[in-house]
């Protein structure tokens, strides 16, 4: 494939790289999980954690009809707040807040549109069946800015995350019932601003997206080539380790973020995280692993001795844990070769300093068992 690299570089140099902020939901890989977001929101709407003012401002912003729920809230007592509230075999309410004088039902449409079965209409019918006291019910249809859907039931008041976050941003820490909730609230605000308040679901700006779509084949080729070269570097590292720790005396268990080295007599069970072993690990916080080393000027690698699985309770005198960490450059061919060489030298030193000690501990344990 013929690629004009200078033209691509010129285009890339003109793009602004916007770092996506880390949030709790992003860290646990649930940035758009409707159930998890609903649980998070329910926590913030619970006045026992935060303040009744949040719900009051939401009710004011979504006022419909003659019933003034914001005024009713003043003298109301919170009885319960639940998520995934079961109403029938096929339907669950995202959030329901029960006060002694009225209820609030929130349908949280993070990614999905309303189903063909007209969920909101069904929800109102089912709520009427379980609302024994015939209390007034406030219905809210919460959605991100990019979700253009509308509720089939006009009794549901539309409410965007943009408006919700404006309310949360006005809440002071000193107003909260539990001051520790302030950290959760700020994290939820940051997450919503990044993932739920965009006018488009795409996270990159239009110029970046247009450039990618116009050059998709070429860019995909470059990415595939990068991954192939990274795989070769990883294999170079593994093969170098195998030379220092040859089979059948040792066995190597490589993965994306770690490479484990087992001695056959140390409890090897042909699986990861079992028995005594040496291990090198990339730092998760750097978003770099053994499959993406190339191009990085500073890769942090930790060296460790681990004792896991059944052997952990047998050989209790073997000291385990992280020994130390080193950083290595992988940004050009020379640095890659030198870094691999340095990693192997560190592993060699670890082997020379610890292998005999571990062997001795295992043999003494076996002898003790025979004696007993």
Folded structure, characterized:
The protein is built from twelve helices and ten strands. With 372 residues, it is α+β, with helices and mostly antiparallel strands. It folds into two domains: 19-195, no CATH class; 218-371, no CATH class. The strands form two sheets. A five-stranded mixed β-sheet has the order 1-2-3-4-5, sandwiched between helices. Strands 6-7-8-9-10 form a five-stranded antiparallel β-sheet. Helix 6 links the parallel strand 3 (103-108) and strand 4 (137-143). The chain is extended, with a radius of gyration of 29 Å.
Topology (elements, then pairings):
Elements: H1 5-13, H2 24-27, H3 34-45, H4 52-61, H5 69-74, E1 78-86, E2 92-99, E3 103-108, H6 119-130, E4 137-143, E5 156-160, H7 161-169, H8 181-195, H9 206-214, H10 216-244, E6 250-254, E7 258-263, E8 275-282, E9 299-308, H11 310-314, E10 321-328, H12 333-371
Helix pairs in contact: 4-7, 7-8, 10-12
